[in-house]
Design a protein that fits this description.
Two copies of one chain form a homodimer. Chain A has eleven helices and ten strands. Chain A has 281 residues and is of the alpha/beta class. Chain A folds into two domains: 154 residues, Rossmann fold (3-Layer(aba) Sandwich); 115 residues, Rossmann fold (3-Layer(aba) Sandwich). In chain A, the strands form two sheets. In chain A, strands 4-3-1-2-9-10 form a six-stranded parallel beta sheet, with helices on both faces. In chain A, helix 1 links the parallel strand 1 and strand 2. The longest helix of chain A has 16 residues. Chains A and B meet through helix 7 and helix 8 of A and helix 7 and helix 8 of B. Chains A, B: Belongs to the aspartate/glutamate racemases family.
Chain lengths: 281, 281
């Protein structure tokens, strides 16, 4: 049996920092038996304002660190990295499944829309790369897709500004472009950054009940489960899986900010500091 | 004459990204004859939420890139890097002056205060390191210093959210700790992050006329001029100096965001992309 065929091997999940914990959370809830390794590249977070070249390089280094730990699958739990680096990573690691968050998010938004007017909010990098726009149009060529960056939401989510009047006013200002008369009214909005589910309540209030919000964390977890099943890689019947955390900087801050994104406390003492910046690219 | 004795050599200025352009601007206005090289470590921005260990490493790599370009002086135009890395850099480069923004900021706040109650707003890294607190108490042992992180201000400054009612409400919420009854009323507030001068107008409105704002950009420029004069390194009588820009990622984004921090447009085509992450540390 090849290493990648060992069902007990962990699933490797990486993100630029803490945001990907929303994806890890969803995977753990759906697949409690799986062993998981999460890597947050906190030494270089955020990816969302950096160039495709740098993000691809960082994603390759993060993936390498997980591959060295013998994972059976790679999950890119970061929209920006999924947008630019999924193809290079699938090319580099053809023997294991490599899953990003864009494909599942595009699937879900095409399922959800009736008017075929879909909005996307994401980081600058994801919007500029047009990854969601292209992925949605591949699936639903007649759709109209409007994407806008909402960089402020990342800071709000990390600072724990998740609700209240002031947060609602900020969210209204950032989502203003979707309410311009020159844009068709959308009926589906993709939360195209792993930080944004922290603001889901307020975003829902601002956009109203007529707009479905697509949260890529839950959908990606489903895609992970489906793919493991197809490949015969599910860790069925085992005891509860273990979760291991790696960061490239600041375990203490990671542990503190993680509480906004992960359902259980993560003690800083259980977070391992790793250096991936020296990996050749 | 040693290389560092050549008055025509440029002054090297570095920051985590665009914020240090406020310092560069002030140096250029005060010393128009000087040649300047600015390095923004945009591949790893921000420094303010990263650990002292990582920021010191990044600062050493940035300094090395400037030293290789034969600068006559190093200016750390980033509060977080000044807080943690000035001593290592002074040790590494004893032959040239190395100036940070914390010392000049502390000097100016001690000059400005009458009540000896001084407030500091900065990034998490600068606050946690207690650099301003220590620097002010060294100069004025009887002072009381209250420091609070205002991480959201960085995002507001970069997004161009510099004024208006909503920005004022956000600034009020962030500065709330300075208006608690259990804190003595401050009469001086240090803007301890190079991004914050972009919000100076609103911060002034919120704090009121009774509170002096200390903007480290202007004060650091004065310290640079004083030190060059003392060392006989001023480039007197020369033609207008040249300014060169280096970034570690994304010249296009740098050029765009720079408009919020620098008085002249910087064409992306004039910004050179450099790699410093491979430098040994």
């Amino acid at each position: 049996m090849s290493a990648s065929g060992d069902v007990q091997l962990p699933i490797g999940v990486f993100d630029s920092g803490v945001g990907g914990l929303t994806v890890l959370n969803a995977i753990r809830q759906r697949l409690p038996n799986e062993n998981l390794i999460y890597l947050g590249d906190t030494a270089r977070v955020p990816y969302g304002t950096k160039s495709a070249l740098s993000v691809t390089r960082y994603a390759e280094q993060a993936a390498k660190a997980l591959i060295e730990r013998n994972v059976k699958m790679l999950v890119i739990a970061c929209n920006t990295a999924s947008a630019v680096a999924i193809e290079p990573l699938q090319y580099l690691y053809p023997d294991i499944p490599v899953i990003g968050v864009i494909g599942p998010g595009a699937d879900a938004s095409c399922d959800a829309t009736q008017s075929q007017h879909i909005g996307v909010i994401a980081t600058e990098g994801t919007v500029n790369n047009q990854a969601y726009q292209n992925a949605i149009l591949e699936r639903l060529p007649s759709a109209s897709v409007v994407a806008h960056p909402c960089s402020l939401f990342v800071a709000l989510a990390e600072e724990g500004w998740h609700n209240g009047d002031l947060v609602k006013q900020i969210v209204e200002a950032c989502l203003e472009p979707f309410r311009h008369v020159d844009h068709p009214m959308i009926d589906t909005l993709v939360l195209g950054c792993t930080h944004f589910p922290a603001l889901k309540g307020v975003i829902g209030e601002v956009m109203g009940d007529a707009v479905s919000l697509v949260d890529s964390a839950e959908i990606t977890a489903r895609a992970v489960a489906d793919r493991l099943q197809i490949d015969g890689l599910l860790n069925i019947g085992a005891v509860k899986g273990e979760v291991q955390f790696l960061v490239t900087d600041g375990p203490t801050r990671f542990a503190r900010v993680a509480q906004h994104f992960f359902s259980d406390p993560i003690p800083a003492s259980e977070i391992q500091l790793v250096d991936i910046q020296h990996f050749a690219h």
